[in-house]
Amino acid sequence: MSSSTRKNILRIRDAVKNFGGLVAVSKLSFDLAEHEVLGLIGPNGSGKTTMMNMISGVSKLSSGRIYLNGEDISGSSSHLIARKGVARTYQLVRMLPTLSVLENVAAGGAFGFSRRWGSDLEEYSRTLLKRVGLAEMENTAVDALTYIDQKRLELARALASDPKILLLDEWLAGLNLTELEIGISLIKELRKEGRTIIIVEHVMDAIRSLCDRCVVMNSGMKIAEGTPSEVLADAEVIRAYLGDSGA
Amino acid sequence: MTKREKRSIIPVFLIFASAALIPLVDTGYWLSISISVVMYTVLATSWTLFSGPTHYISLATAAFFGIGMYTVAGGLELLPFPFLVFLAGIIGAILAAVIGLATLRLSGVYFVIFTLGLAEFIRQIFTWVQTTMGTSSGLYVLTDITESIIFWELLALAMLVFGLGWWIGRSRLGFALRIIGNDEIVAAHCGINTARAKIVLFIVSGSIASVTGALLSPRWTYVEPGIAFSPMISFQVVIMALLGGTHRLWGPLLGVIPFTLLWDVISTFFPNQTTLLLGISFLLIVYLIPNGIVGLVEKIYSNWISGNREQFN
User: Fold this and answer.
1) Hey, where are the domains in chain B?
2) Contacts 24+ apart (CB under 8 A), A140-145
3) Region A67-71: what's the mean pLDDT?
4) Which candidate, A115, A141, B151, B219, has a CA 20 to 30 Å from the CA of A148?
């Protein structure tokens, strides 16, 4: 199906999502290969987050199919999709405020794709905290964390189940310049490790330096697909972002 | 087991052991009060097992309690008492599973209202059945089970509930419930079957309430729906649990003891204003000590610790 020789781990076929009369995603199809970092980009309201929600099972597809490793997951519940290896972060950070920082990470590793428990889980969660740069924060109250640290914690939680696919929904949004650099280098490391990631992002620098390939959406439809430099030079993409007069 | 847990085993055991001596000291007023304390400890603690972490406020305790009580009252002439207690647990579990499947998708106030309505509904059914099909408004429960025995039975049940609560607290299920209580969407994305986890805990909690009702049935020689399904039971359980604090296993106990004593005073001196005073105490508790006595104790403790630190620094 794809020109790539790598195995397609996720296949989206004609995904449609209607909210009443509003078509949020319309007949969207794309593939995600193993070890690939795919950018899902497009102007605000183009249906990117809805697509992420369909992959992770938060919203059910109105029609179409999603295959994970050949298995149809389009009707599955979130928890089953998570157990099959899809982990995610959220556009607006979602913390577990009554749990400690360490427990916030452990939450991701106890029930998901690869499961751990007891001291094994604790050790692993600590490793992940260290990895995202929160080694000293283990016993801090979650609501005392800064915004970037909450983002880091959310990433650690998503990584805790050692997922096959990681969905990062505007993970870099709202960070200042220095934080952005830290964030980008964190995702770069994940990329080097060979993780399979879908990134929804507005930060173009991040898209250029992180993504192997991009799918560009506008009004729920795919308007372009290709390497970052290809799609960002595409006339229709420029029109979608800047409007007709800008093109 | 952590060191802290190991250290707390002996005092917990001593508390239970000394409580078990109460019937040997007094079989009158103090035993009677103690039965109420243990009964509400069991009910409030098991209520907290489910409602504490999930924040789903259930007002169905009376339904489970009453069904347990009626299982014994209705079956006593046919079946042995221990079997009926066991049966009550099973019936309570089935009822909880049915309610759970039907309602746990409801959230917040809808769940509260549903459970309250359901408990009333069951009470009305029992009243109707009893008055149209039976010859009287209630059933006689005549056994040779004394108050002392009831007390010991309840105390054993309380030990079971605490043991169960401790075990759940350190299990994956307990962790799952805490995550659900924080954010159900995150919980699902972590791989937790949120509906199943909630139903399992609701079943545990409902089943225990039914067994409690069954064990208490012999205390009243005459059981009628107004006693067995009294909504006051549901409300008191919630108030006591909130007063004590729902984020610790032993929290509800700290609410049960003062409230049972207070309630005894209220019903002795103001028998006609009990509902009013119940409402007022509920308002005061929610307003003044939202995290319960446990929260209060912990706050004072942590202030004291940090105060000490400042002194040394």
Assistant:
1) 3-231
2) A140/A100, A140/A101, A141/A100, A142/A95, A142/A96, A142/A97, A142/A99, A142/A100, A142/A101, A142/A104, A143/A95, A143/A97, A145/A95, A145/A101
3) 95
4) A115
